[in-house]
Fold this sequence. Notes:
Layout: H1 3-11, H2 15-19, H3 21-39, E1 49-56, E2 68-74, E3 77-89, H4 97-110, E4 121-126, H5 131-146, H6 150-158, H7 166-182, H8 190-199, E5 200-204
Parallel strand pairs: 3-4, 4-5
Antiparallel strand pairs: 1-2, 2-3
Helix pairs in contact: 4-7, 5-7, 6-8
Amino acid sequence: MSNGDLAIHQKYTSPISAAGDGYVFEHSVQAFFVIQMITGGLVPRMDNCEVTRIVLQAERYGRKTDDCEVTLKDLNNPSREKTLLVQVKRSIRLSNGEFTKTIKDAWNDFNSQRFNRNSDRIMLVTGDLTRNGIGLKNILTHIQSSYQSADQFWKNYDDKVLGRGKSEREGLKRLREKLILANNNIALDREVEFKFLKSFFIIKS
């Protein structure tokens, strides 16, 4: 590369190269929620809700899942607020330490007195998932849409009649392992674990 080419390359370095791909991705996800608030648009998995407030980098307010804290108004009950905590990762591997930390942070938020397990949600947004990661995403969606009872879910799980594919079962197994780690290597109460599975979901952007 000539000196002239080098100067042009340095002058026109892309924002992704300058800021880091992960930061650009995170900011694009945050911008999505801002746009939804301005336009009255919809937010995934928060049906009949309208965004009223957004906090970026919410760790200073005690959140562990801190890239974006979204407050929503329930349009069926305007006096009722719901919270969506958002973590953004450019890519996720279920076997790595970053996913372990993401689940630990989510578990800590889930157990916070500020978290309403009946209405609040935790969202992991990522641009890249492995096969098992996609499986985990899909089985969480299945659990959240198909099961209201922890007893029925765990019965089907124990009897191996969930009817899901290998990657989904493996993804759920990895998540359950991370949850035990997050809980100081103590097995979780199944009712509480089921509520977490109903509260945590993955969006592939």
